[in-house]
Amino acid sequence: MRATSAATKPNRHQPEQPPQTTRTSVRRTSSNRQQSGKKRLRLWAVLMIVLFGWAGYTFFGQSSVIADKASKLEASQTVRAESEKTLGEVKAEIKRLQDPEYISQIARKEYNMYKPEEIPIRVTGEGGGE
Fold first, then answer.
1. Tens digits of per-residue pLDDT, 23-73?
2. How many Å apart are CA 125 and CA 130, to the nearest integer?
3. Quick one: pLDDT at residue 9?
4. Is 56 helix (H, G, I), strand (E, B) or coil?
5. Using CA atoms in the order 92, 93, 98, 104, what is the torsion angle rounded to 10 degrees?
6. What is the DSSP letter of 9?
7. Cβ-count burial of 108 within 10 angstroms (0-12 exposed, 13-18 middle, 19+ buried)?
8. Do residues 112 and 120 touch, judged by C-beta distance below 8 A?
C-alpha cells in the first residue's frame, strides 16, 4: 500500500490557480476617466499656449528685423541711384572731352588760351559791356 498525502496529490475537481501577486489593479470609474480627460485637455491647452506664445515672439522679433533691413535696402537703393546718375554724367563728360571743339572752349574760358590768329576781347566794368 502506498501512503499518499493530500498535499502531494492534486485534486482533479479544483482547477489550479495562478499565484497571486501583490499588485492591485485600479478600476477606472467614470469620474476617473473625466478627471484624466480634463488633465489631458489642460496639458494640451498649456502646450498650445506655449506654442502660440513662442510663435508670436518669433514673429514680432523677425518683423522688426525685416523692417530694419527694408530701411537699409531703401537707403542703399537711393545711394545706388545717385551713383548711377553721377556715372552717367561722368560718361557724358568723357564723351564731350573727346571732341576737339569742346576742349578749345574749355581752354579759352578757364585757362585764357587762344589760337594764334585770335584777338581776345576783354570787357571791363559793370554790366559786362552792355
1. 666 566 667 778 888 899 999 999 999 999 999 999 999 999 999 999 999
2. 10
3. 57
4. helix
5. 140
6. S
7. middle
8. yes
Rounded distance between C-alpha atoms, residue 45 and residue 13, angstroms: 58
> CB of 20 within 8 A of CB of 26?
no
Residues 19, 23, 29, 34: is their CA dihedral positive or negative? negative
- Confidence band (pLDDT; 50, 70, 90) for 122? confident
CA 72/CA 74 separation, integer angstroms: 5
* Sign, Cα dihedral of 41, 42, 48, 52: positive
> HSE of 116 in the Cβ direction (CA atoms, 13 Å)?
0
Mean pLDDT of 103-130: 80
114 grid coordinates: 587762344
Distances (CA, A) of 115 to 9, 98, 103, 110, 111: 146, 19, 13, 14, 12
What is the Cα–Cα distance from 55 to 43, expressed in whole angstroms? Answer: 18
